[in-house]
Amino acid sequence: MDHTKINLLVKLQHLDNQIESIVSLQKGLPEEIDALDEDLIFTTRQIETRKIIADDQLKQRSRLHDTINDCKNKILNFKEKQTLARNNKEYDALSKQIEYEEKEIAQAEIQLQDIVHAVQKAQEIQKKGQQLIIENRYDEITEEMMPDDVLHQQLEDLKKQVDQKREELDSIVIETAADVDSLKNKIETQRAVIDREAKRLLDKYDHLRSGSLRNAVVKLNRNACSGCNTRVPTNRHTMIVQGGFYLCESCGRIVVHEKLFEEAEN
Ligand SMILES: [Zn+2]
User: Fold this and answer.
1) Does 98 share its domain with 220?
2) pTM of the model
3) Suppose 255 and one of 36, 182, 246, 260 were both cysteines; which one would form an S-S bond, judging by CB atoms 3.0 to 4.6 Å apart?
4) Which of the four pLDDT bands, split at 50, 70 and 90, describes residue 25?
């Protein structure tokens, strides 16, 4: 058996392991940042939705007040005309117009009341949320119960946290960038060599690593595959000790003697 081929692959696994250990320095920061970003988007959207509703209510109120003022002016105007009416028919016609404007005012006032009620209701719901917060009953708080000030505070806190984590991650990335670049170059070279010398082994390696598994080549540890702890048959030990490899029957990993890893390190 040509043992140099497996040595090439162990070297590749060794390099890939080094990259993995550098990435693990990031301590799950990228995932944490993603989760915080999602919360940030959600909170921002909540605040924006409330602002859109409040702006819309303000616009409606101002429009309704304008309508009422318009109607009132018209009524004054009609009443003035009534004093100059030449006959009952003219007078009655003006009365009808006044009546119409009064109805318009009444309608606008109902709409204004509805808005006031909607605002009051939203405030009451938030008060309930405030109470639940005081009682530490956070899981009972619905989206609309979240008080405005708490929501804004939450947004500020989330922004601070994301910035902090991002800074932390950036500094780790900057610190390790040179090492990662150099490892990536070595890996590329190593892969090119194996692709020429032992393409089938490289395919096997890539296939094993195509899922979540990162260690395709593992050491023989206490006569077992160190990837899954399944015992390696005794009659295969000699071959492994001699520098060959064994495909674990249980997990499919490539099992080699630890000295191959020691050699790869040097
Ligand atoms: Zn195994």
Assistant:
1) no
2) 0.64
3) 246
4) confident
User: How remote is the CA of residue 224 from the centroid of ligand 1, in Å?
Assistant: 8
Tell me the per-residue pLDDT of 210-221, one tens digit each, with 9 for 90 and over.
988 999 999 999
Are residue 135 and residue 66 in the same domain, yes or no?
A: yes
Calculate how far, in angstroms, residue 252's C-alpha sits from the geometric centre of ligand 1. Answer: 6
Q: Report how far ligand 1's centroid is from the alpha carbon of 8 (Å).
A: 20
38 shares its domain with 146:
yes
Q: Report whether pLDDT(102) > 70.
A: yes
The pLDDT value given to residue 2: 58
- pLDDT at 3 (0 to 100): 65
Q: Do residues 205 and 14 make contact, with C-beta atoms less than 8 angstroms apart?
A: no
Q: Domain end: 136, 167, 198, which one?
A: 167
163 and 189 share one domain: no
Q: pLDDT at residue 112 above 80?
A: yes
Helix, strand, coil proportions of the chain in percent (round to 5)? 75, 5, 20
CA–centroid distance, 230 to ligand 1, in Å, is: 6
- In this structure, the answer to whether residues 92 and 120 fall within a common structural domain is yes
Are 195 and 204 in contact by the 8 Å Cβ rule? The answer is no
Alpha-carbon distance of 40 to 172, in angstroms, equals 23
Do 21 and 37 belong together in one domain? no
Determine the average pLDDT of the residues in 225-232.
96
Q: How far is CA 176 from CA 11, 28, 125, 172, 214, in A?
A: 21, 16, 50, 6, 20
Q: How far is the CA of 246 from the centre of ligand 1 (A)?
A: 10
- 249 CA to middle of ligand 1, Å? 7
What's the pLDDT score for residue 36? 96
Distance, CA 232 to ligand 1 centroid (Å)?
9
Q: What gap in Å lies between CA 155 and CA 143, rounded to an integer?
A: 14
pLDDT at residue 23 is higher than 90:
no
